[in-house]
Amino acid sequence: MLSKKTKYAFHALTYLGKNQDKGAILIQEISENYGISHKFLENILLELKKAGFLGSKKGKGGGYYLIKPPNEIALSRIIRLLDGPIALLPCVSLNYYEPCEECENQERCGLNKVMIRVRDETLKILEMKTLQDILEEE
Amino acid sequence: MLSKKTKYAFHALTYLGKNQDKGAILIQEISENYGISHKFLENILLELKKAGFLGSKKGKGGGYYLIKPPNEIALSRIIRLLDGPIALLPCVSLNYYEPCEECENQERCGLNKVMIRVRDETLKILEMKTLQDILEEE
DNA sequence: ATAAAACCTACAAATTATATAGGCTTTATG
DNA sequence: CATAAAGCCTATATAATTTGTAGGTTTTAT
Q1: Tens place of pLDDT per residue across chain B (138 aa)
Q2: Exposed/middle/buried for A88, CB within 10 Å: 0-12, 13-18, 19+?
Q3: What angle do the packed helices B75-83 and B110-128 form, to 10 degrees?
Q4: Residue A80 falls in which region: left (phi positive, over 0), alpha (psi -120 to 50) or beta
Q5: Exposed (0-12), middle (13-18) or buried (19+): which is A134, by Cβ within 10 Å?
Q6: Dihedral of CA A110/A116/A119/A124: which sign?
Q7: Residues 38-67 of chain B: which lie with beta carbon within 7 Å of strand C?
């Protein structure tokens, strides 16, 4: 399951995407809209900014705004940033690979093979689908 | 990511599957083979037994054995039993459904739609693949 | 100068995952 | 029939992670 952090990130991105014309949006506006703790969301938005998805303006009249076009924000990127691996096992993760301690031979592990398939099918979707797609559905 | 519990369960099932002809297998034999804590594995095997996958024999010369044919043990069943939902969001879970608090309207949630696709593709694999397939790979 | 806002770091609380403890029950065997 | 070996059961302890809070710093419009 995705963490709340990731879910909140998607909500925030969606909100910012819908309001791209309105300039900088307050953290508070987003947090109130979804009933998310202001401070918690603050941390999340900061991470999204550092990762290059958002821009911000400090001081009075400041706030956050999308810095990338929605169609360039793949869902997989957001999940990886906030939740880490998408794969179901460390030994099949592309970005967070680790061998399984219990397995002497990953090449001959049946579970490994299945989980590679799951990973690939999942990524097919999450790498193709972008914030744009989310916005178009709503 | 799958929990260790689930991973250990798969290891144990695989081991029992490979040794179906040898009668009851000691917890200890499995735990030593994979370097899993005896007591932790004990709990896991008990759950698998209660769920109808394993049988056991108590007392001297006792142990565990598969009670279902490997081709009837879908990977999805094991994951759900020990880890809970396979879906990435509660609002798209078939077996552990819960609405998202922040969402006023799940019907018009773009994320929901994507995650249903991910769930379906994942389940296509995990419901089709069984312990038998794992055994055949190893 | 002031107030509003993001920035930053650290910490606190809650939840979940992992592991351990220890006694109970069953059973093969000498 | 006594004994030891094994699973059964429930509770608790420990560790890790997630979620949330606190409080001060910096920037900026007015």
Answers
A1: 999 999 999 999 999 999 999 999 999 999 999 999 999 999 999 999 999 999 999 999 999 999 999 999 999 999 999 999 999 999 999 999 998 877 878 888 999 999 999 999 999 999 999 999 999 998
A2: buried
A3: 120
A4: alpha
A5: buried
A6: negative
A7: 39-40, 42-43, 57-62
CB atoms within 10 A of CB A14: 21
Residue written as token pair 């698998």: B48
Give the DSSP letter of residue A98: -
* Integer angstrom CA distances of residue B82 from A78, B48, B71, B96: 27, 9, 19, 13
Q: How far is the CA of B10 from the C1' of C6 (A)?
A: 48
In this complex, which of B34, B102, B110 lies closest to A133 when CB atoms are compared?
A: B110
pLDDT of A108 = 82
Q: Which residue has the tokens 């799940």?
A: B106
CB contact under 8 A, B75 and A7: no
